[in-house]
Design a protein that fits this description.
36% of the residues lie in helices and 12% in strands. By secondary structure, the chain is α/β, with parallel strands linked by helices.
C-alpha cells in the first residue's frame, strides 16, 4: 500500500525531482471516507459549505463552485452578457482557458503584452489596445503575483470595461492587504483547483463575486439551466451523516419536478471534490508559509548569479508563490542540463498569440511576452518539496554556469 501521509507516495511513480507534486495526505483520505459513508457524493452539502467558507476566506459576498477555472471564466463571461461582436482583452502569457472562455461566448480576443518583471498584464499596452468594441479585460495573476490592479481598474473605468480576474495561480494572494477574490471594482474572480494548484480539489474551480445577479446566473448556468439541483430537491437532513438505523435515516423526500428556462452547462462541483477543497482550505495558510520559505531559499542562494533574473514581489502585493520561474538567456541549455541531473523543469507558457488557432485569426507582436517565452524556466516548487531537493537544484544551476564558460551573460 502506498504511503500517503506526508505525500511520500509520488516517489513510487516519479523519479528525480518533479516540478510539481500533489499536496494530498491522510486528512484528505479521511474526508473522502466521510463522503462515501454519507451516501451522497454528488453536488450537495459539502459543496455548499466549501462555497461559504471560500467566500469568507477571500472576502467576497458569493462563491460559486464549478468543475474548473475554464468553466468559471466561461460562466462569468456568459453571465455578464458578453457575446458575438464583443472584444475581450487578455494576456498571451497564460493558459489557453483565459482566451478560450471568451471564444466560447463568441467574443473576439485581443492579446495584451505583459510586464517584464512581474509577468502580469501591462497597463500601458492594455490602454493602447482598447477599441470601440472592447467590453471586458481579464488580467492574469501570473505565478501568484497580483497584477497592477489600480492601473487596470482606472483604465477599465475610463473605457467602461468589465474587469474579471483570472486567479488560477493566485489563491491566497493579497493586493494592498486584501485577498485576491474579493477586490473592488473587479466584477468577478475565477480560481483553479486542479491537481497542481495551491488549493486542489483534484480538478475544480470557483467564481467569487459581490454581484447578486451574477452569482444567481452562474448557479443556474452551471447545472444545465435547471432551477434546482438534485440536492436542493432532496429534503433529508441526515444525508450529511452516516446513521446506523432506518429510523435515523428516513426515506428521502425527493421532488422530481424542475424547470429549464435557459441553455446551461454541466459545470457543477460534486461533494467528493468539495470535501478535498475543505481540507485544502484549512491547509492553505501553512502551505503558503512553506511556499514563501522555499521562494526565499531559492532567491537567497541564486541572487549572486548575474546571468539569470529571479521572480519579484512588489511592495503592494503578497504573492501566492504558485510558480518559481527564473529568467535566463540560456533557457534550453539549462533545462536540458537539469533534466540530465534528474531535475524536471517547465516553461509557463508558450504564448497564445503564437498558437496556430489564434495566429490564424489575427497576427500581433508582443515583444515582452515573446522574450519571456524564450527565457522563463519554472523550477521545482510545491509544499512537499524538501529543502535538500531545493539545494540540489540550486547547486546544479551553479554547476551549469561553470559547465558553460561561453554562456551569454545577462543583458
Amino acid at each position: 500500500m502506498l504511503e500517503l501521509i506526508g505525500c511520500r507516495y509520488p516517489y513510487a511513480v516519479v523519479k528525480g525531482i518533479p516540478v510539481f507534486r500533489p499536496g494530498f495526505g491522510a486528512e484528505e483520505l479521511e474526508a473522502l471516507a466521510d463522503v462515501f459513508k454519507s451516501g451522497w457524493i454528488g453536488p450537495g452539502p459539502r459543496a455548499a459549505r466549501f462555497e461559504e467558507r471560500f467566500a469568507e476566506f477571500v472576502g467576497a459576498r458569493y462563491a460559486v463552485s464549478v468543475t474548473s477555472c475554464t468553466a468559471a471564466l466561461h460562466l462569468t463571461l456568459l453571465g455578464l452578457g458578453l457575446g458575438p461582436g464583443d472584444e475581450v482583452l487578455v494576456p498571451s502569457l497564460t493558459f489557453a482557458s483565459t482566451a478560450h472562455a471568451a471564444v466560447y461566448c463568441g467574443c473576439d480576443v485581443t492579446f495584451v503584452d505583459v510586464d517584464l518583471q512581474t509577468r502580469g498584464m501591462d497597463p500601458a499596452d492594455l490602454a493602447a489596445k482598447i477599441s470601440s468594441r472592447s467590453r471586458a479585460v481579464i488580467p492574469v495573476h501570473y505565478g501568484g503575483h497580483p497584477c497592477r490592479m489600480d492601473e487596470i481598474w482606472e483604465i477599465a473605468s475610463r473605457h467602461g470595461l468589465l474587469v474579471v480576474e483570472d486567479a488560477a495561480h493566485a489563491c491566497g494572494a493579497r493586493y494592498r492587504g486584501q485577498r485576491i477574490g474579493g477586490l473592488e471594482p473587479t466584477v468577478a474572480t475565477c480560481f483553479s483547483f486542479n491537481a497542481l494548484k495551491n488549493l486542489s480539489t483534484g480538478d475544480g474551480g470557483m467564481i467569487t463575486t459581490n454581484s447578486d445577479e451574477l452569482a444567481e446566473t452562474a448557479r443556474r448556468l452551471r447545472w444545465m439551466g435547471i432551477n434546482k439541483n438534485t440536492f436542493e430537491r432532496t429534503t433529508t437532513p441526515e444525508l450529511d451523516g452516516a446513521p446506523d438505523s432506518a429510523e435515523e435515516n428516513p426515506v428521502p423526500k425527493y421532488e422530481w419536478y424542475y424547470e429549464i428556462n435557459e441553455l446551461g452547462f454541466k459545470y457543477i462541483m460534486n461533494d467528493v471534490s468539495a470535501a478535498l477543497g475543505l481540507v485544502q482550505l484549512d491547509k492553505l495558510p501553512q502551505a503558503a508559509k512553506v511556499r514563501r520559505k522555499m521562494a526565499d531559499r531559492y532567491s537567497s542562494r541564486l541572487a549572486s548569479l548575474d546571468w539569470l533574473e529571479l521572480p519579484v514581489e512588489r511592495e503592494e502585493v503578497r504573492s501566492a508563490w504558485h510558480l518559481y520561474a527564473i529568467r535566463t538567456e540560456s533557457q534550453e541549455p539549462l533545462r536540458k542540463y537539469l533534466q540530465s541531473a534528474g531535475i524536471a523543469t517547465s516553461v509557463h507558457y508558450f504564448p497564445l498569440h503564437l498558437q496556430p488557432f489564434y495566429r490564424q485569426r489575427k497576427r500581433v507582436s508582443l515583444p515582452v511576452t515573446e522574450r519571456l517565452a524564450r527565457e522563463l524556466v519554472t523550477l521545482p516548487f510545491h509544499p512537499n518539496l524538501r529543502m535538500d531537493e531545493i539545494d540540489q537544484t540550486i547547486a546544479k544551476i551553479h554547476d551549469f554556469r561553470q559547465s558553460q564558460p561561453k554562456a551569454a551573460g545577462w543583458q
